[in-house]
Every structure is written in C-alpha cells, then in structure tokens.
Amino acid sequence: PFERSLFNSIFVSVVGTALYIIIASMAAFPLAKKKARFIEIYYQVLVLAILFRPEVTRTPLYVILSRMGLLNSYSSIVLPVLAGSFGVFLMRQFMLTIPDEILEAAKVDGANDYLIFFRLIMPLVKPAWMTLTIFTFNSLWNTGDTQYIYNEEMKTLTAVLQSISSDGIARAGAGAAVALILMIPPVLVFIISQSSVMETMSHTGLKG
C-alpha cells in the first residue's frame, strides 16, 4: 500500500538521520579534541574509507546483513548509512575551529566530557550537523533498497517508483505523482538548512 511505503520512507529517513548525526558527532569529537595514541592513524583510515564507493562494499555488506538476519528490515537500510565516514570527517573539520580554551574552561567549572559534548560542542557545531542532516536525509529518502528488501510491505517510496516506472506508459500518471511526493521533503529540508550549509563550507574548507 502507498501509505505503508510512505511510512517506511519517513521512518528510515528521520530515525536514520537522527542516529547518524549523533554517532558521527560523537566519533568526531575525540578525533578533533583529544590527544591520544594512534589518533592520527584513525583519522587517516577514516579519510581512506571515504574513497570506497557503495558499489565496492555492496556484496560484502549483503553477506554481513544476511548472516545477521537483518534482510527485509529497517536495519538493512539504516545500518549501512550509520557506518559512513563522511559525516565523521565533516563534523571533525568543524569541531577543529572551536578553541581549546573553551573546553578547558568548561572542565575547570567541573563539566565532564559528556556534558561538554552535548551542552557545549553540539550547539557550537549546529551548522555542521544541519548540513549533515541534508546529506543523510537525502541519501535515506532516495534509497531504493532493492538489494536488501524483498518484502513489498517493507519497501520505500523510491522502490515503489522504480516498480511503477518498469510498467511503462500505462502507469505514467502514478509514477509522476510518486516522483512529486519524493521531491517535496528534500526540498523542505534544504530550505530550512540552506544558511547552515554555506556557513559549514566556509568553516571546513570545503568551499571551492
């Protein structure tokens, strides 16, 4: 049913985006602000991981999800996104712009790492995680998940659109309606977050 596919798309996009922002930010914090052994090696591995295209990891990822019994579930869509390294890189680059003196002052006042992260770091890097929201939401919203989802009740709107498109001109009207619905949420998310995107690019050095 259309309503079920719409719910699937909304659920995996919202939940997956929220989880990835938290996980990527927590992983980026020690890479940016902690002095530990091998921390630079971890960062280099992170950068190398960005070079791997999804086509390269699709087969081993399918094997892993299959052995874990996660096929035909929301986890098969969300978990691969949570393992992405680009968000960690983006958040780390922005966190590097935060002066260490601010963190030291918070520690002097008795704040622990968890309090510093949630009450100090996250508000300061809001432009970065708003930008990451756009990238992650669009990735999850537009996923066809045909390689991991075979149950019709678990498919997202993008998978439904692909099925409708394969029927040819007979269902062109339905396909156009679904395509219009698919376009609306990413546009709304971008409109809300567009100011944060430019601020993030200027801070992280990603602006060309």
Provide a short characterization of the protein structure.
The protein is mainly α and 208 residues long. Helices cover 75% and strands 0% of the residues. The chain starts with a helix and ends with a helix.
Explain what you see.
The protein is mainly α and 208 residues long. It contains ten helices and no strands. The chain has helices at residues 2-33, 39-50, 54-67, 75-82, 86-95, 100-108, 113-124, 126-141, 157-165, 172-204. α1 packs parallel to α4 (75-82) and α8 (126-141) packs antiparallel against α10. The longest helix has 33 residues, at 172-204. The model is unreliable at 204-208 (pLDDT under 50).
Helix/strand layout:
Elements: H1 2-33, H2 39-50, H3 54-67, H4 75-82, H5 86-95, H6 100-108, H7 113-124, H8 126-141, H9 157-165, H10 172-204
Features:
mainly alpha, disordered C terminus, elongated, 208 residues, single chain
Q: What order do the SSEs take from the amino end to the carboxyl end, as H and E?
A: HHHHHHHHHH
User: In percent, how helical is the residue content?
Assistant: over 70%
The oligomeric state is single chain
Class based on secondary structure composition and strand pairing: mainly alpha
End-to-end Cα distance, whole Å, is 44 Å
Percentage of residues in DSSP E strands: under 5%
Largest sheet: none
**Number of alpha- plus pi-helical segments:** 10
Which spans of ≥5 residues are poorly predicted at pLDDT below 50?
A: 204-208
Q: Rounded to an integer, what's the Rg over CA atoms?
A: 20 Å
> What is the number of strand segments?
0
Shape estimate: elongated
Mean pLDDT: 82
